[in-house]
Amino acid sequence: MSALAKASGALKSVDYEVFGRVQGVCFRMYTEEEARKLGVVGWVKNTSQGTVTGQVQGPEDKVNAMKSWLSKVGSPSSRIDRTNFSNEKEIPKLDFSGFSTRY
């Protein structure tokens, strides 16, 4: 585990799905940008149901900040109706080295 992770306490992982007007509004690009700013890792992708889904991992406080962003902020022209979080758990190490868009 990196010194950064140790200093900030437990590492968390959470899956998310964002509902609303979240496709065709640069949501994935802004999500990737926000994740890099916060220093969390994981991925984001569009679903065939018109939602955006993904996973975020990192120190608990940073994951919580990303959860808040995914629930309330999003991209400038998006409209978030609701965000579901699942599989929230403590993890021994990060599964990803960065944050990426999946297709």
TrEMBL record:
Secreted is among the record's keywords: no
SUPFAM superfamilies per the UniProt record, alphabetical: Acylphosphatase/BLUF domain-like
GO terms assigned for molecular function: acylphosphatase activity
Record Pfam families: Acylphosphatase
PROSITE patterns in the record: ACYLPHOSPHATASE_1 (PS00150), ACYLPHOSPHATASE_2 (PS00151), ACYLPHOSPHATASE_3 (PS51160)
Protein name per Swiss-Prot or TrEMBL: Acylphosphatase
Catalytic activity: an acyl phosphate + H2O = a carboxylate + phosphate + H(+)
Residues annotated as the enzyme's active site: R28, N46
Top-level taxon of the source organism: Eukaryota
Known EC number: 3.6.1.7
Organism: Grus japonensis
Similarity comment text for this entry: Belongs to the acylphosphatase family.
The keyword Acetylation is annotated on this UniProt entry: yes
Keywords, comma-separated and alphabetical: Acetylation, Hydrolase
Ranges for domain Acylphosphatase-like: 13-103
InterPro entries (alphabetical): Acylphosphatase, Acylphosphatase-like_dom, Acylphosphatase-like_dom_sf, Acylphosphatase_CS
